[in-house]
Design goal:
Layout lengths: L18 E7 L3 H14 L4 E4 L15 E2 L6 H21 L6 E2 L2 E5 L2 H16 L4 E4 L1 H7 L15 E5 L3 E2 L2 H14 L3 E3 L4 E7 L2 E7 L2 E10 L5 H7 L7 E12 L7 E4 L4 E5 L4 E5 L14 H14 L8 E11 L6 E4 L5 E5 L9 H14 L30
Parallel strand pairs: 1-2, 1-12, 2-9, 5-14, 12-19
Antiparallel strand pairs: 3-8, 4-8, 5-7, 6-7, 10-11, 11-12, 13-16, 13-17, 14-15, 15-16, 18-19
Helix pairs in contact: 1-5, 1-8, 2-8
The chain binds flavin-adenine dinucleotide.
């Protein structure tokens, strides 16, 4: 079986009803996973997922598909490790091939401070259940022979943390499998249905306004990615979120196997190989906040230059495609999940540049909160009120490039 063998998906589409128990705004990974786990784990199916464009049109269909749990703080390691475990069984559970592949991730250090940081990452990962070990330059050479250990004579490779459970999965297959799994159980997914306002009664959110008419809801969940501040403002919720563009690109295919993923905090890039053989390369967010999906030459130029410093074989390849998403960045680089202080209105946001890997655990935990009314232990540290209560979850391990 290869990537191009497709199974015909038989899905039933509906006209929106006037009312649902739960309305989830946003048909990306987090919105769909929340619906999927509500349906499969809690039997709650009177749900609508409202998507302004098409399933996966946002960041869930634009990311570089890296799945890992090698974060920098215990709360995050535990949470992302749960997501890794769910991903490992998601293909069997949904009976859909997501091209999930365990690859291992080398996170390279070029300075003494970097070595200390990667050693610390390995320690905290091991202590809280993620499989990460520190490796020397000669071990790096064995794991990934393409790495230039001199770092182009500028950024010598001094060591790396090696995260054994680092994996990738095909992003559009993940979102469609979740959508299909939820829809088969009775969840309604409405594409091309932008939410334009919230229905409010007193201090409570009681539904949404859409271009197809109002829809009442027992509970409204915001899962709108980079557009969260606009939606939350409709409920009077001010969020500490900034939206920044994030770009990525792929080259033409590289004939040799590049089996693992490589990231460098100093060179600010990360790379993996797709199933088609293309080299998939990403970097940090654009500094300037914005909602633009415009890709730029400057990003290509600077990111390629940095990538070539460590992986000189890339110079023989050609850039095929470039694209951009808009990321909901939280100030502590950790997600924000749960209640908002406004009755009837929950959110899942702050997924920034790292939320693809979190899709199963984020959906599972949000579903539990919605079904039981109690915040699960795993996501309690990531509540919105942490900012008011001065318990931020600053995590330098969250983005691949810092
Ligand atoms: C270039 C790039 C590379 C990345 N690489 C990685 C990676 O390697 N690993 C990783 O873990 N993460 C990565 N990420 C981050 C990851 O993609 C996101 O954090 C994740 O997909 C967020 O999912 P989501 O469901 O919250 O948001 P989205 O997937 O953005 O979904 C939100 C949806 O809401 C819809 N919407 C918005 N407003 C409305 C409205 N008013 N009404 C109805 N619908 C609305 C949008 O159309 C969209 O489909 C990357 C992101 C980008 C852009």
């Amino acid at each position: 079986m290869n990537e191009f063998v497709e199974r015909k998906v038989e899905l039933q589409w509906h006209e929106p009803k006037r009312s649902y128990d739960v309305v989830i705004v946003g048909g990306g990974g987090h919105g769909l996973a929340t619906a999927y786990y509500l349906a499969t784990r809690h039997g709650i199916t009177n749900i609508a997922v409202l998507e302004s464009r098409y399933i996966g049109a946002g960041n869930s269909g634009r990311n570089t598909t890296i799945i890992r749990s090698n974060y920098g703080i215990p709360e995050a390691v535990r949470f992302y490790q749960r997501s890794i475990e769910l991903y490992q069984h998601l293909e069997a559970e949904t009976d859909r091939w997501m091209m999930h592949q365990r690859k291992g991730l080398l996170w390279i250090a070029h300075t003494e401070a970097g070595v200390r940081a990667e050693r610390a990452r390995a320690e905290v990962n091991t202590a809280f259940g993620a499989r990460t070990e520190f490796v020397t330059p000669s071990q790096i050479r064995e794991i990934c022979p393409q790495v230039d250990l001199t770092g182009g004579g500028i950024w010598p490779v001094l060591g790396a943390s090696y995260h054994l459970d680092g994996a990738t999965a095909r992003h559009d297959r993940v979102v469609w499998a979740l959508a299909e799994g939820a829809m088969r159980r009775g969840v309604h997914v409405h594409q091309r249905t932008p939410v334009t306002g919230l229905l409010i009664d007193g201090d409570r959110v009681i539904g949404v306004e859409t271009e197809r008419g109002p829809i009442a809801a027992g509970l409204v969940v915001s899962a709108v990615g980079g557009h969260v501040t606009a939606l939350a403002a409709m409920a009077g919720v001010r969020l500490p979120i900034r939206t920044h563009p994030l770009q990525a690109f792929v080259t033409n295919h590289y004939a040799l196997a590049f089996d693992q993923m490589v990231a460098s905090s100093n060179l600010l890039f990360y790379v993996s190989q797709t199933a088609r053989g293309e080299m998939l390369i990403g970097a940090e967010i654009d500094r300037q906040p914005g909602y633009s999906y415009q890709s730029g030459y400057h990003f290509l130029q600077s990111c390629s230059f940095r990538a070539l410093t460590l992986l000189p074989f890339l110079r023989d390849l050609r850039i095929l495609r470039q694209w951009t998403g808009v990321c909901d960045m939280s100030p502590d680089y950790s997600p924000v999940m749960g209640e908002t202080g406004v009755p009837g209105f929950y959110l899942t946001t702050g997924w920034g540049t790292w939320g693809f890997k979190a899709i199963p655990a984020g959906g599972e935990q949000m579903a539990e909160l919605i079904a039981t009314g109690r915040t699960p232990q795993l996501i309690a540290p990531f509540s919105l009120n942490r900012f008011a209560q001065d318990r931020t979850m600053a995590d330098r391990g969250s983005a691949g490039t810092h």
